[in-house]
Amino acid sequence: MSEGDSRRKIGAQVTAKACHVVHLSECARRHGALRTTKVVVGTVVEVNNTRKAPNNRVSTFITADFDIGGGSRQTFQTGPVDSTIQSRSTNTGSRQADTDLAVPEQEEGEAVLQETSPDEELEFPAQPMMEIGIAAGEQVAGPTAQVATQVWGVEDASFVMAHETKWYADEQATLIDINGSVQSKQFGINTPIGDLLGPDSDIDGKYSRLQYFLLMFPPDQLSAMCQQTNVQLAQQNKHYMSTGELLRFFGILILATKFEFSSRSQLWSTTAPSKYIPAPAFGKTGMSRQRFDDLWRNIRWSNQCPERPEGMSSHTFRWQLVDDFVERYNNHRANTFKPSHLICVDKSMSRWYGQGGNG
Fold first, then answer.
1. Closest alpha carbon to 141 in 80, 191, 90
2. What InterPro entries has UniProt attached to this entry (predicted)?
3. Fewest CB atoms within 10 A around its CB: which of 35, 49, 158, 224?
4. Does residue 195 share a domain with residue 327?
5. Distance of CA 43 to the CA centre of its chain
């Protein structure tokens, strides 16, 4: 290696692709679509020159610490890979590997690398160099967050670096209203007679579960579903469906979630699957299996044109199967439901696996 090569100095900065530092699966989790192109910065911590006695040739190895959100140590290859590569790995909590990657042997004093500035990106082999220990079932530990202090000029303020983003630990800041003060209020639902039901407003159990369901479900949706489903039933010479039968159908759907079954017919079985589990016997609900199947095949939630009109896209035509129901439900909630002052962000508890990752 050339004496003037900045990479041979301890403390110098070097760059490497993240997939050469940690396993590709970890790169996919952290960087998503950038898993094969993401570049990380490392600091040289050790430079070793080894000399082979038979021909007096020298090989140079550089060890660098790369910051990927936690302590990760990986031997850095300084030149083209020789035909023989020896590797070994260790695991000490975070992913830590020392791999002997040899550069072509050279006579003493012969330089095999060009002069390189600290900001110049180094060349890497086409194949990832970090397949160490995976075949043997090694577990890849998650990165450890780095904690920094003295942020915003506040004494002992701290943050963690994760995914190239600073996350601050401030219990008081989480209680500050971003868009100003918001008055605290409880959620509630208006009844048809003007009462407002909220937390602890029905401790005596005045309302049944069915009545709560009817408070939340749009009344005009029940009528529309009966009308449109009866059109389908009439075409097959089936009995008309009443609003009460539709509610019974909903109840059976909810009850079915309490059972494990491979086909719907098992729900009407009167034979217990074991002495510890009673038979479902859904016939006791007052609806036969045949009637349930008739409603299942002909139930309609929204009005859809018999044929797709010219100029209408196929996905718009398919959405007609639920469009009316969604509109009625949203209108009913807007008119009767009173939300509280709290907001819950959707999917706020889902783990992020990167763009293109599997979650």
1. 90
2. PGBD
3. 49
4. yes
5. 32
Phi, psi of 201 (to 5 degrees): -90, -10
Cβ neighbours of residue 30 closer than 8 Å, sequence gap 6 or more:
18, 68, 69, 143, 163, 354
Task: Say yes or no: 162 and 278 in one domain.
Answer: no
pLDDT tens, residue order, the chain (359 aa) = 455 677 778 888 888 888 888 888 888 877 778 888 888 888 888 888 888 777 878 777 888 887 766 555 555 454 433 333 333 333 333 333 333 333 334 444 333 333 344 444 444 444 443 333 333 344 444 444 444 443 444 444 577 787 777 777 777 766 777 677 778 888 999 988 888 888 888 888 888 989 999 999 999 999 999 999 999 999 999 999 999 999 999 999 999 998 888 888 899 999 988 888 889 999 999 999 999 999 999 999 999 888 888 998 999 999 999 999 999 999 999 999 998 888 777 665 666 666 555 54
DSSP annotation of 284 reads: G
Are 303 and 236 part of one and the same domain? yes
DSSP-derived 3-state class of residue 331:
helix
* pTM metric for this prediction: 0.48
Whether residue 206 is found in the same domain as residue 245 = yes
- Alpha carbon distance 60, 279 (integer Å): 74
102 assigned to some structural domain: no
Q: Which amino acid is at 46?
A: E
229 and 330 housed in the same domain: yes
Residue 109 and residue 102: Cα distance in Å, rounded?
Answer: 17
Are residues 209 and 329 located together in one domain of the fold?
Answer: yes
What are the beta bridge partners of residue 52?
57
Contact 214, 243 (CB under 8 A): no
Q: Is residue 309 part of a domain?
A: yes
Host domain of residue 334: 189-338
Pairwise CA distance, residues 321 & 185, whole Å: 37
DSSP classification of residue 22:
S
On whether residue 263 sits in a domain, the answer given is yes
Do residue 168 and residue 271 come from a single domain? no
Residue 163 placed within a domain: yes
Task: Compute the residue count for the chain.
Answer: 359
Total tally of structural domains belonging to the chain? 2
